[in-house]
Write a structure and sequence with these properties.
Blueprint (H helix, E strand, L loop, with lengths): L1 H43 L3 H31 L4 H24 L11 H36 L2 H6 L1
Helix pairs in contact: 1-2, 2-3, 3-4
């Protein structure tokens, strides 16, 4: 009985992942179309700075969604959640915030809500930069650990051939 329950629980989990993956793919595609449409409209209206900032911001959000879809599909294939794609999503999110904050601070995107003081913005930029550094080091360590694990799986005969 317990085996049958586990079987159905695993099927339900996979179904949830597939559903979330499909919803994310549709969301990313629709969001990308609207992003291009709005950016094109802003460029045609002569709002170049605003259009560029919105295109960067929304394109990076779409890239984050795509990376989450990749992580979800990879989990469905392998059955193990990989850490590196999640860290990459974090890096993209922080870089996205840095770009938007920089645009707001520079005054080119006043309509995006530039209510922060310059000092608060600089503190946030410093913390975001530190976050990118920590996430980048984490990606490096994960990759290094993966290489070490892969090399340890080889037999001594395999290593002597290389």
């Amino acid at each position: 009985m317990e085996q049958k329950s586990l079987f159905w629980a695993e099927r339900a989990e996979r179904g949830i992942y597939w559903t979330v993956g499909i919803v994310l793919i549709l969301t990313a595609a629709i969001y990308l179309v609207f992003t291009v449409w709005e950016g094109f409209s802003l460029y045609m209206a002569g709002h170049f700075a605003s259009a560029t900032i919105k295109l960067f911001d929304r394109s990076l959000l779409t890239l984050m969604i795509a990376q989450i879809v990749y992580t979800t599909l990879n989990f469905l294939k392998v059955g193990v959640l990989q850490v590196e794609p999640v860290l990459v999503v974090g890096i993209i999110a922080v870089v996205r915030r840095i770009l938007v904050l920089t645009a707001v601070v520079s005054g080119t995107a006043k309509e995006m809500g530039a209510s922060m003081s310059f000092r608060e913005s600089m503190i946030e930029l410093g913390l975001l930069s530190l976050t990118v550094l920590v996430l980048a080091v984490s990606v490096y360590l994960v990759r290094k650990n993966t290489v070490i694990e892969t090399s340890q799986e080889k037999t001594p005969a395999d290593i002597s051939k290389t």
